[in-house]
Amino acid sequence: AQKITQTQPGMFVQEKEAVTLDCTYDTSDPSYGLFWYKQPSSGEMIFLIYQGSYDQQNATEGRYSLNFQKARKSANLVISASQLGDSAMYFCAIISNFGNEKLTFGTGTRLTIIP
Amino acid sequence: DAGVIQSPRHEVTEMGQEVTLRCKPISGHNSLFWYRQTMMRGLELLIYFNNNVPIDDSGMPEDRFSAKMPNASFSTLKIQPSEPRDSAVYFCASSLRDSQDEQYFGPGTRLTVT
Prior knowledge:
The structure holds two protein chains of two kinds.
Chain A: E1 3-5, E2 10-14, E3 19-21, E4 24-26, E5 32-39, E6 46-52, E7 60-61, E8 64-69, E9 74-79, E10 88-96, E11 104-105, E12 109-114
Parallel strand pairs in A: 2-12
Antiparallel strand pairs in A: 1-4, 3-9, 5-6, 5-10, 7-8, 8-9, 10-11, 10-12
Chain B: E1 5-7, E2 10-13, E3 19-24, E4 31-38, E5 42-50, E6 53-56, E7 65-71, E8 74-79, E9 88-95, E10 104-105, E11 109-113
Parallel strand pairs in B: 2-11
Antiparallel strand pairs in B: 1-3, 3-8, 4-5, 4-9, 5-6, 7-8, 9-10, 9-11
């Protein structure tokens, strides 16, 4: 079984500052993938970034980067130079690379960017 | 390229009525997923199709729920009869190969059962 824990239900960050959204996970599988999704108030789920458990380098996509610490089982999302449009719910998710496993989501963190 | 398309975007129906939600995945994607999102339970996978074949339907709540994928470009999720506790946002998502690939979500259908 897999589990994602997002301990920050809500965060307020000043515009242009960097923000780190926490994500810890639990899995017994040696090979897995970690995802971050953004859900703005309009409701759609937007894929942001992916990290494979065997990837040597932390994933980056534009202003998004993933601080992957395998020994600590954490996969924090870092958003640099935050913008007002970054205000949204952010979900961390995990899937095993073995078999037809389900993508398991965390409960999410609501990020609000303050002008 | 068009993303995942879902219809309707909003549905309000009375308890006991049949509800059909529709999804068109991204062209060329081989996997399709139906999710339900509620405040209490978060995002839950209901069913997963690969190459039009249901692979995992263990998340389907009960016999009132059924899903079909008659071809690679269309899927339906049907609830019959609907109940107030089915009120939720239902998302369809697709991925290029299988469940390990990143999934691209549709805009969702907000279902309200009164």
